[in-house]
């Protein structure tokens, strides 16, 4: 019996991961989730780490399962969140589990870097990247100041998807879209900036060769073949940054769109043919990240469903998303409003208490029930989206006619309608699996099955049906936005 050929996608988020099998036959795209698993942050010794060995083992387990179920794997692609990296020693082994971007070791380090190494506006001019404390540049600065022994011994520094690909192939690369999140990449030369590397005591040779999405990194090692039973299959550098893979899967027919990749983070932006780096983008702290086919993702990172998920873990009575959303729709609208990107919501011991403190500080009613917390979070996010979309409309050379919401957040109909209402724009929600779809389609591109990102989107559009939301209650949301600005921008 002939085995079923499948593309193998590894999609790792900051709270969970999954493996997905995909097939493209003509214009027919099929997908099935193979495994799903948690990706917890490990706290020890005053630091927060990712367990890269556990993630590797999840990939191995899924590959074995695929073989056992009779599938022939054609290729493997890995996407992850941005900024974080692993360190490799001179003997080729990993030196330590990677630090998480939520580790407190970067507290104050961004300002320290600006005060003692290079000025803030100069860093932005060189990279076009939103200045955030957990960007790789400031992580490296913090590690250097702390005399981190693993960094001192590092022969190679590999961003997360590249580190996992290295564990599968033995080949060290630096995938372009993932590297673009680091605040070390030059968006014009498409390579790492040596001046910024030198500022944290590093050399270009400590990073792998730069590769673009759709490049074959190498084949899996003989060890992997023996452990899993797979053949001599290639590992493909997809858009290693999950946002870039997700945006590549936006089912748009033309360039007049904005996107909102909604998950732990919300990333709202537009796709441009070139970086947009100037005084206004600097003052608004907008970012120019790498996209597929030499595009630039001009966007803003917004604290997304992280706030909701953290609150949900604290609620005493455990309820489904649907139950919480339904209850939230029954309580008073705009009772309390927060600024989702306020520093107090980054990683507090208690998210519900952080929200309560913010409301007390700003003279608002304090949420008392899970429904009130959820309503506050959803409405506040929608109002923040309106603020960011207004900035994008003002600065972008591309006309924005529609907003595509992709990722897990696209399943939240309440949030999609709130966003349409707040932003006064038609919202198309879906696909939920955008990141995995982009990952699979970029592997298909590497195999010559599709030509470019627009050919990918044509196929994706034929295989997905986004849900449409039109704006409603405009006067109500206009008043709420004025109140949001008064509270959050006071």
UniProtKB/TrEMBL annotation:
<feature type="domain" description="Carbohydrate kinase FGGY C-terminal">
    <location>
        <begin position="258"/>
        <end position="447"/>
    </location>
</feature>
<dbReference type="Pfam" id="PF00370">
    <property type="entry name" value="FGGY_N"/>
</dbReference>
<dbReference type="InterPro" id="IPR043129">
    <property type="entry name" value="ATPase_NBD"/>
</dbReference>
<dbReference type="GO" id="GO:0005829">
    <property type="term" value="C:cytosol"/>
</dbReference>
<comment type="similarity">
    <text>Belongs to the FGGY kinase family.</text>
</comment>
<dbReference type="Pfam" id="PF02782">
    <property type="entry name" value="FGGY_C"/>
</dbReference>
<dbReference type="InterPro" id="IPR013449">
    <property type="entry name" value="Rhamnulokinase"/>
</dbReference>
<keyword id="KW-1015">Disulfide bond</keyword>
<dbReference type="GO" id="GO:0005524">
    <property type="term" value="F:ATP binding"/>
</dbReference>
<protein>
    <submittedName>
        <fullName>Rhamnulokinase</fullName>
    </submittedName>
</protein>
<dbReference type="GO" id="GO:0006071">
    <property type="term" value="P:glycerol metabolic process"/>
</dbReference>
<keyword id="KW-0684">Rhamnose metabolism</keyword>
<dbReference type="GO" id="GO:0019301">
    <property type="term" value="P:rhamnose catabolic process"/>
</dbReference>
<keyword id="KW-0547">Nucleotide-binding</keyword>
<feature type="domain" description="Carbohydrate kinase FGGY N-terminal">
    <location>
        <begin position="8"/>
        <end position="247"/>
    </location>
</feature>
<dbReference type="InterPro" id="IPR018485">
    <property type="entry name" value="FGGY_C"/>
</dbReference>
<keyword id="KW-0418">Kinase</keyword>
<keyword id="KW-0808">Transferase</keyword>
<dbReference type="InterPro" id="IPR018484">
    <property type="entry name" value="FGGY_N"/>
</dbReference>
<dbReference type="GO" id="GO:0004370">
    <property type="term" value="F:glycerol kinase activity"/>
</dbReference>
<keyword id="KW-0067">ATP-binding</keyword>
<dbReference type="GO" id="GO:0008993">
    <property type="term" value="F:rhamnulokinase activity"/>
</dbReference>
């Amino acid at each position: 019996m002939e085995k079923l050929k499948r593309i193998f996608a590894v999609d790792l988020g900051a709270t969970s991961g999954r493996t997905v099998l995909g097939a493209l036959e003509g214009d027919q795209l099929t997908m099935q989730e193979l495994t799903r698993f948690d990706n917890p942050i490990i706290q020890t010794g005053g630091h927060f780490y990712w367990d890269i060995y556990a993630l590797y083992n999840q990939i191995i387990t899924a590959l074995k399962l695929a073989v056992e179920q009779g599938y022939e794997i054609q290729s493997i692609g890995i996407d992850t969140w941005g900024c974080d990296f692993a360190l490799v020693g001179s003997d080729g082994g990993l030196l330590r589990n990677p630090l998480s971007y939520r580790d407190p070791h970067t507290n104050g380090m961004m300002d320290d870097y600006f005060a003692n190494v290079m000025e803030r506006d100069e860093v932005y001019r060189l990279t076009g990247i939103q200045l955030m404390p957990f960007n790789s540049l400031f992580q490296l600065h913090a590690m250097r100041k702390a005399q981190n022994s693993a960094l001192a011994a590092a022969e190679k520094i590999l961003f997360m998807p590249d580190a996992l690909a290295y564990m599968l192939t033995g080949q060290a690369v630096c995938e372009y879209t993932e590297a673009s999140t680091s605040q070390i990449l030059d968006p014009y030369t498409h390579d790492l900036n040596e001046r910024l590397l030198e500022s944290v005591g590093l050399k270009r040779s400590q990073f792998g060769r730069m590769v673009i999405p759709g490049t074959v990194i190498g084949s899996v090692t003989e060890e992997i073949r023996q452990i899993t039973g797979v053949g001599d299959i290639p590992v493909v550098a997809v858009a290693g940054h999950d946002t870039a893979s997700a945006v590549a899967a936006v089912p748009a027919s033309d360039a007049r769109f904005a996107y909102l990749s909604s998950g732990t983070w919300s990333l709202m932006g537009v796709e441009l043919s070139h970086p947009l780096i100037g005084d206004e983008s600097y003052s608004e702290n907008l970012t120019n990240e790498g996209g597929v086919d030499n595009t630039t993702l001009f966007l803003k990172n917004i604290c997304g469903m992280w706030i909701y998920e953290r609150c949900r873990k604290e609620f005493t009575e455990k309820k489904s998303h649907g139950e919480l959303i339904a209850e939230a729709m029954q309580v008073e609208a705009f009772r309390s409003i927060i600024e989702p990107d306020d520093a107090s919501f980054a990683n507090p011991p208690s998210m519900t208490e952080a929200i309560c403190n913010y409301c007390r500080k700003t003279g608002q009613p304090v949420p008392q029930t899970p429904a009130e917390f959820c309503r506050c979070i959803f409405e506040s996010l929608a109002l923040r989206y309106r603020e960011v979309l207004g900035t994008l409309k003002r600065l972008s050379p591309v006309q924005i006619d529609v907003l595509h919401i992709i990722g897990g957040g696209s399943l939240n109909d309440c949030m999609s309608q709130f966003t349409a209402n707040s932003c006064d724009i038609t919202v198309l929600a879906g696909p939920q699996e955008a990141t995995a779809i982009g990952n699979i389609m970029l592997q298909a591109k590497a195999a010559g099955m599709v030509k470019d990102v627009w050919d990918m989107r044509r196929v994706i559009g034929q295989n997905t049906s986004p849900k449409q939301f039109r704006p409603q209650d405009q006067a109500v949301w206009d008043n709420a936005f004025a109140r949001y600005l008064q509270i959050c921008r006071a």
